[in-house]
Amino acid sequence: MDKETKKEQEQEKEKARDDILRAALKLFTEKGYFNTSLADIAEASGAKTAAGIYKHFKNKQEIASALYEWIVNSLSISIDDIRRRNRKSSDQLREIVDLFFRLTDYAPEVMRFILVLNINEFLPDEKPIMESQAFIKILRVLHGGIKAGEIKAADSQRAYCSFFGIIENTLKQVLTGTLTKKADFYQNDAWSSAWDGIVKT
Amino acid sequence: MDKETKKEQEQEKEKARDDILRAALKLFTEKGYFNTSLADIAEASGAKTAAGIYKHFKNKQEIASALYEWIVNSLSISIDDIRRRNRKSSDQLREIVDLFFRLTDYAPEVMRFILVLNINEFLPDEKPIMESQAFIKILRVLHGGIKAGEIKAADSQRAYCSFFGIIENTLKQVLTGTLTKKADFYQNDAWSSAWDGIVKT
DNA sequence: GTCTATACGCCGATAGAC
DNA sequence: GTCTATCGGCGTATAGAC
To answer: CA distances (Å), B91 to each of A47, A162, B85, B96, B143, in order?
Structure first.
């Protein structure tokens, strides 16, 4: 067996794993973790049988765990990038908000996973999402803004509640259909409310 | 059998039903609906066996359904009362916020049920909570404030996202332990941020 | 109306052929 | 590494004695 074939096989396997993750993400966020059976995931990930999943994941929880890690890591990387490219916390927050709104429109499952699902209900051993790297970095952005005198707030936690309370609530209403237009439609409004609430004037 | 005995029996039965509901509320909000078995509920509600629950409820879902209805109805009644006793929307909102914060400190399970649980995951046939009477009435309060010129907002939905985004996010952080003090500690701060964000100046 | 026993189904997980 | 078959267990729900 030459290198080419080996590589192809590995790619195949990667793809299969990826298909499982994608299908699981969709089903978990649609029906919930406990309403989704491995058979459902197998079917949705294309012609595979439930047993085959165990070649890629130790068990059902590991699928959710991998999803969680993947989402939180991607977010964390994006936030690193945003912090690197922007100096002012207002600009950083602006871009984070933009990211969240775009994700809501173009990858709603991801945002549903973060905002709607009760992650610790099926991943009891994971840290709460507020303690994940991604959200710690968001708190750092707020902290930076407070230190720089751009943001008024007792502490970054409080600033988070105020600022992201508005952002997340808006997005959650979009995701659950209470707000009926695309997230994009509400972005400017939500940004203004959220930012005006914490900016030092 | 005289009337006294009959009455006592009925009270006994009411109490048993109540014990089941209380135990279920505690367990559902602690571990989640799907992680709670009828055996768990039976044990927590005192010396009863799982089978006995079926004398009081048709099935597990009905317990959750009864809880949901009870919570939403209680809220709805409280809000009616608040609206009756106050004219200005600012006063009405003030009291609603006060209610939410008090519930968070003194009946956290109730607030966890509302804010943390994914109700439609285990009650797929119920309307989303935003369409329940209680929350429709909250939207009316906001609508009243907009019409009276007290609140600036494009519509009550948008005002809701902004105002209750801050309130609910704060309470959620308290309920999940990210904010470590009692809800009461954050109330004035949250109220100011939330109200300042929607008041017309 | 409470407890014992038990039925039944579903789903997660494993074993083994190919 | 995928499919077939199957196990084992849990958890809901029912039946029947008392």
So the answer is: 59, 21, 9, 9, 14
Chain mean position to CA B29: 12
Taking the C-alpha atoms of residue B97 and residue B78, their distance in angstroms, rounded to an integer, is 12
Same domain for A38 and A7: yes
Does B106 contact chain A (CB < 8 Å)? no
Q: Quick one: A189 and A150 in the same domain?
A: yes
Instruction: Give the whole-angstrom CA distance, residue A73 versus residue A101.
Output: 18
Number of domains in chain A: 2
Alpha-carbon span B133 to B196, nearest angstrom:
26
- Joined together, the tokens standing for residue B19 give 């014990």
- DSSP 8-class letter at A127: P
Q: Does residue A108 share a domain with residue A34?
A: no
CA of B55 to C1' of C4 (A): 16
Nucleotides of strand D under 7 angstroms from a protein beta carbon: 1-5, 10-16
Across the interface, whether the CB atoms of A166 and B167 are under 8 A apart is answered no
Q: Does A196 touch chain B (CB under 8 A)?
A: yes
Q: Are A89 and A80 in contact (CB under 8 A)?
A: no
Residues of B in Cβ contact (< 8 Å) with A167? 165
pLDDT in tens, chain A (201 residues): 444 555 656 666 678 899 999 999 999 999 999 999 999 999 999 867 899 999 999 999 999 999 999 999 999 999 999 999 999 999 999 999 999 999 999 999 999 999 999 999 999 999 999 999 999 999 999 999 999 999 999 999 999 999 999 999 999 999 999 999 999 999 999 999 999 999 998
Residue A68 near residue A131 (C-beta atoms within 8 A) = no
Separation of CA A37 from chain center? 23
What lies within 8 Å, CB to CB, of B42 at 6+ separation is B48, B49, B50, B52, B53
CATH of the domain at B191: 1.10.357.10
Chain B nearest CA to A129, separation (Å): 10
How wide is the angle at C-alpha B118 spanned by C-alphas A169 and B122, nearest 5°? 155
Q: Residue B199 in 3-state DSSP?
A: strand
